[in-house]
Amino acid sequence: MDTFTPAKTDAFEVPKDLEKRIDEVITHYPDKRSAAGMVLHYIQEHMGFISDEAVFWTAEKLDLQPINILELVTFYPMYRQHPVGKRHIRVCRTLSCAMCGSYEVLDKLCQETGIDKTTMDHHHPIGISADGEWSIEFVECLASCGTAPVLMVEEELFENVTVESIPDLLKKAREKAEPNPINAAQD
Amino acid sequence: MAAITYTKKPHPKERRMIFKNVDRKGWDPSIETYIKDGGYEVLKKALEMKPEDVAAEVKKSSVRGRGGAGFPAGVKWGFIPPNNEKPVYLVCNADESEPGTFKDRYIIHQDPHQMIEGMIITAYAVGAKIAYIYIRGEFPEGAKILETAIEEAKKKNFLGKKILGKNFELEMYVHRGAGAYICGEETGLLESLEGKRAYPRIKPPYFPAALGLYMCPTIVNNVETLCHVKHILDMGGEEYAKIGRPNNTGTRILCVSGDVQKPGYFEVEVGAITMGELIEMAGGMKEGRKLKAIIPGGSSAKVLRADDRYKIKEKNDKGEEVEKEIGIEDILLDFDTLAAVGSMAGSGGVIIMDDSRSMVWALNNINEFYAHESCGQCTPCREGSLWMKKITDRLVHHRGAEDDPQTLTSVADNIAGRTICAFGEACAWPTQSFVLKFPEEFEQAAKEGEGPDHELRNFRTEALAGMKPSQPQLTMAGS
Lengths: 187, 479
Hints:
The complex is a heterodimer of chains A (187) and B (479). Chain A is built from eight helices and five strands, in the order ααααβααββββαα. Chain A has 187 residues and is α+β, with helices and mostly antiparallel strands. In chain A, helix 1 (16-26) packs antiparallel against helix 2 (36-47) and helix 3 packs across helix 4 (66-75). The N and C termini of chain A lie far apart (47 Å). The mean pLDDT of chain A is 91. Chain B is α/β, with parallel strands linked by helices. In chain B, the strands form four sheets. In chain B, strands 8-7-13-9-10 form a five-stranded mixed beta sheet, covered by helices on one side. In chain B, strands 3-2-1-4 form a four-stranded parallel beta sheet, with helices on both faces. Chain B is globular. The model of chain B is unreliable at 451-461 and 468-479 (pLDDT under 50). Classes of the chains: A alpha+beta (187), B alpha/beta (479).
């Protein structure tokens, strides 16, 4: 039977303050395993994505098998296995936003950031610009249907977005939204 | 106390209770502001009562859950087995993700302490010592606000040990989801909280109140429901039950989106207004447009057609039940009326569509959502949701087959009732109702010949056509 071997591509070192945060969050639960979701969020916040090594590290930290962590990374849409652009944009695709023009907003964003939309599909939902500045993902409902269409740049929500406002929005996003850690050093 | 003023004035027909502090001038989410406004006084009052008396008040209020199913909250609490010796958990379902719903966002971001106070009272009533707030991953700012609020509450001894000098302890933690709609289903949420994939559990036996988190009794309530608990204890269950209509008590936040002039949120007494009034409150239809369809309770609620007549039962002067026929604008917005006209009040997300909309296009958008969000545990849902999406997708692209409408209905019929959780119904109802209510549009789309339609395109399908070979990566089957 084939056994799973991790690709040793990205060195994963956990800084002390991150490990402290992780150790703290584990105490929130009677069962260590419950902390897995939060630990993965912290790791992704720290390194921009979740590498194979991070999967192994997390499993060991929580006394689990790597598959117990990998199955989470592949199930939950927000966890990523690959680096993305310096600032990651999530555009809402679902009904109310679509009715108010989110498909057109996505088109314009791709055009402005130079992202090739044809690289995005169900299995590779994220498109990344050639210069690594931006990445775009068409996501399901962001729960702000009253101010549709909406999008998020990193943790910042932008409401009532129009196609015309996109160049301006990108400029603002550069100022307001904290860049993704993996590429932040260049900022 | 000075009169409350708002940056965005509530509509005169509104009754602001839960949303009292949303858009309020001079308001911020800090504990000082909340306490200055009388915050945590209800908690003090509740802690003077016996836990079972607190629960009895909630039962008397007949408040129904605001998450979607509309199950009476007091009854749910009562399902904790008597003589239970295991720890009890309280979980706040803040995974707001039903398309069309956006009420919890404003409670969490603007009035977190109202929710926390409601949770502490609930925890006291059900005997929980640990409470989790499961907040959707797409609310990173909300999660931070809640974490700060919990810290503040701890410092004031509203959380921790010996709360307000009483023999009552409670710890509260924020747990972030990561973008999966299925986590809004309570048993899926609990699996997720246990650090697993959010595969819902089958009921029976896994009713959370008996076998919930770590197989211990767990009460899972929606954000809005937990806020109502505070107000129920404030005014007393019987007084609260006078708001709204019998069996449809309290206020309710309705979220209006889509083709209206002023989309937004409106807190009204349950059943106080009709659909027509709600549209008026939201500024009416857009210039020159006519109402075509309404999805009244989040995207999974069955669609209502504007030019249909609806039969409801009403009591006449003599107290006899008589059948009455009404138009869509006269449908009362409460749990029972919306169920009587064949849909549901669900999560309170009302999506309005005008005559510029293609119903095939709209259903395709909804189907894509459910195809993406099915957890994949049960075959009928995993496969069926994708098939329905593929069929509506080809109809939109004028590549449909003549019998596609029938195939759609047959696929949907074979999902509903054949799955572990209610997602099966949630994804089948839109297809069943759209095809049933707008047969002419689906037949027309099915008849139309082949040929690309550039106006109504679907980017994922386009992308699939030019799909590149996949990159080598660590992958598993799944979402």
